[in-house]
Amino acid sequence: MSRKFALAGAVALALAVTPLAAGTASAATEQEAAVTTVYYSTASAPTFRSVINAGAANWNRSVTNVRLVERNSGASLRYTEGNDPRGSYASTNGHGSGTIFIDYTQARQYNPTRIAAHETGHALGLPDHYSGPCSELMSGGGPGPSCTNAVPNATERARVNQLWANGLVANSEQRVYETVYGF
Ligand SMILES: [Zn+2]
After folding, report:
1. Binding site annotation covers 128?
2. Count of other CB atoms within 10 angstroms of residue 68
3. Quick one: which residues bind Zn(2+) (predicted)?
4. Of residues 87, 84, 79, 81, the one with CA closest to residue 55
């Protein structure tokens, strides 16, 4: 039997199966396009609850493939607060899970909503880029304390949408963020 014939047979089979599988295929397509919800808890960061929520709202207004929702039970992303000479940081898988720490001293020096939104950016998959301008959220403390921007720029928005295009399925480029200095 020729290879060409075998392929033709396979195509015919696929065509025959298509009507039966149409419902499933359609559902899968909808699932891929659907927004993925990441639940976060502010229970351990009561001082910063409003700025955490403001930062999350900034992200929710900026991206379409992932949505942050506050829910203290069963949250994959937890915010905590305290004093740490290293400052604020994110310990996360870069895909919606982990812990974000907000440092009291740093939050008095820098805009706390920018800190919260920046650390949340790590949980959504973005790396630090301290040399960037204030308009870039992931430049963190780089532009100095006078920078109060807490909204991701167009490049950051596009990158997060790209990283969440497959929902909770991790991107192969996924990085783990450990202690991060300067936010
Ligand atoms: Zn950072």
Report:
1. yes
2. 22
3. 118, 122, 128
4. 79
Q: Give 101 Cα–ligand 1 centroid separation in angstroms.
A: 11
CATH dotted code for 36-163: 3.40.390.10
Average pLDDT over residues 24-48: 77
Q: What is the chain's length?
A: 183
- How is residue 46 written in tokens? 């009561």
Using DSSP bridges, classify how beta strands 89-92 and 77-82 pair: parallel, antiparallel or unpaired.
Answer: unpaired
**Is 129 labeled as ligand-binding?**
no
User: Is 95 marked as binding a ligand?
Assistant: no
Give the global pTM: 0.79
The pLDDT tens digits of the residues spanning 148-163 come to: 999 999 999 999 999 9
What is the mean predicted confidence (pLDDT) over 32-43? 88
The 10s digit of each residue's pLDDT in 63-97 is 999 999 999 999 999 999 999 999 999 999 999 99
Amino acid letter for position 175: R
Task: Give CA–CA dist 150/90, Å, rounded.
Answer: 16
Closest listed residue to residue 10, CA positions, set 27, 23, 2: 2
Separation of alpha carbons 19 and 44, rounded Å = 51
